[in-house]
Amino acid sequence: MKLQRRFSLRFVFLIPLLVSVVLSSVVVKSHYDLVNRSISAEYDRLKESLWRSSKVISALDYSFTNYYRTGGNILVKHNTFLENDLCKIWPIDAVLRTESKSNGISAVDINYMLVGNEELCDPTSPIYKRASSQVALAPVLSFMHDLDNYLIGIHYSDKEGYIVSSPDTLAQNVTSEYLDTMKARPYWRATDQNRGEITVSGPVNSMVLGKEMMSLTVPVHSEESYEGLISLDIDLDTLLYSGDKLSSKIRIIDRARDSVPGSAFWVRELVFEGVVFNHTIFYDFDLEKEVKQFFSQEKYSLLIILLVYIFSVLVLFYVNTNAERSHFRDLAAKDPMTGLLNRRGFEAFLTQSTHEHTFAVAVFDIDNFKSINDTYGHDVGDDVICYIADQLEKNIRADDAVARFGGEEFVVYLKGYDEKQLIRSLERVRIAISEKSTEVIEQGFTVSGGAEIMGPTFDLDFVELFKLADEKLYQAKTSGKNKLIY
Residue 148: left (phi > 0), alpha (psi -120 to 50), or beta? Predict the structure, then answer.
């Protein structure tokens, strides 16, 4: 009998693997969607931050433009200092933080500085008077600078060659050469050309700050005169920092200077109304970092999938082992040719059965079987044996049993309510075998049998029962065959 596994070894390993691949694909897709949502959220945050910055600089532009000619001389309440042909002016903190402050409102830090040539420190010079009319708005720069952590500084650069800057640390690095060439610089001209709009420049690496920054500039006009510009500097590292939500970095480039790299994904152009952008943001995909983050974030899901795979393989192995164990039990208890019980299996069946009613043990034997083998060959002889096995199984109930004891000898166990019922059943089986035997060989064949009928209180073992039935079979064989002796 050929060993039949319930599942092949290929099935045992490949099907759980296929399921694991499907589950892993779901995890990968879920992680991809999460990264997608995180990138989208970061893009929205980035755009919102830039939009806020544009609103800040627009508000400053409005304030400077409309407050440009305000009278007064509040520079007298500032410190002045001449150094290397430069005039530096900064607020007297105690005065500006308390004077004219509403009662009950806490004082705030004011941090700005004016830087210009020597004339800026001369109260009689036109530049001093011009700066004095504008410096009232300088605290606004300080307030605006503290709105967001990515804002490095806010500056007002005047056409007369001075700068109002917050925080003051930025103004301290201004040189007289820078002031002399300020109006010749590209950003000054580009800002003037985009009148009524905000101009975005960068990213550039600031030698002074040691950071990559981007600037938003807007021109300040008095009627048709270009008076100066307001610049808002943004720390790109802080602006683009996404924490641990993303493994790779979001970057921004100026398309006029740089091209989008091959590692760029989710490429989007920045477009705001009233803002002159020539910039693109993208996700700079780093495969190694993405893989590391994937395994870091999904390690528990992947561990569960691995455990599911191992468990599935073990379950299938267990099923196969049980199938093999059952197969070997069948080998020990069944006849390989017919699939009927063999002698050992039949004895085990009788041992496990409860004999609450009358029962019969019958032995059937094919008449003249040697002649059939000699005439038709052993293949036909095997067909005859299989035919009888089939007929016997068809004519007994589920709680009865039939066995082949080798050669052409078959043993049947039948339960019944009385002896007459059992005799009728056994005769029916014998006649059915003989009548349909022509289906196997043309001349047909007959069977003989001997049966021993016992009540529920019998005290004989199987060997004795079989011996009694076999003796009656012998009587049937020697008294004409094709009959059942009981």
Answer: beta
Cα dihedral across residues 153, 158, 159, 162: positive or negative: negative
CB count in 10 Å sphere of residue 142: 21
Is 299 domain-assigned? no
**The CA-based dihedral angle spanning residues 404, 408, 409, 414, taken in that order and rounded to the nearest 10 degrees:** 60
SS3 66: helix
Last residue of a domain, one of 260, 275, 292: 292
Residues 6+ apart with CB under 8 A from 139: 91, 96, 110, 112
Q: What is the CA radius of gyration of the chain?
A: 51
Instruction: Enter the DSSP assignment of 352.
Output: H
Whether 189 maps to a domain, the answer reads yes
Residue 223 CA to residue 377 CA, distance in Å, equals 123
Number of domains in the chain: 2
Nearest-angstrom CA–CA distance, 410 and 343: 10
Q: Which residues of 14-34 are buried (b: 16+ CB within 10 A; e: fewer)?
A: eebeeebeebbeebeeebeee
* Tokens representing residue 10 in the block: 């290929």
Please indicate, yes or no, whether residues 128 and 39 belong to a single structural domain of this protein. Answer: yes
Query: Any idea what the Cα angle at residue 476 is, between residues 474 and 477, rounded to 5°?
Result: 65
Tokens of 456: 């529920």
CA distance 104 to 20: 66
Which range marks the domain in which residue 238 is found?
Answer: 34-292
The DSSP secondary-structure symbol of 120 reads: G
CATH number of the domain enclosing 130: 3.30.450.20
Say if 151 falls within a structural domain: yes
Instruction: Give the Å distances, CA to CA, from 122 to 78, 116, 199.
Output: 13, 11, 34
Q: pLDDT tens digits, the chain, 486 residues: what are they?
A: 444 556 788 888 899 999 999 999 999 999 999 999 999 999 999 999 999 888 888 877 877 776 554 444 555 568 888 888 899 988 876 444 444 444 444 444 567 888 998 888 888 888 888 888 777 677 777 777 677 888 888 888 888 888 888 887 777 778 888 888 888 888 888 888 888 889 999 898 877 677 899 999 999 887 778 889 999 999 999 999 988 889 999 999 999 899 999 999 999 999 988 899 899 999 999 999 999 999 999 999 999 999 999 999 999 988 888 887 877 777 677 888 888 998 888 888 888 877 778 899 999 999 999 999 999 999 999 999 999 999 999 888 888 999 998 788 999 999 888 889 999 999 998 998 998 899 899 889 999 999 999 887 777 778 888 899 999 999 999 998 999 998
Structure tokens at 424: 């009728």
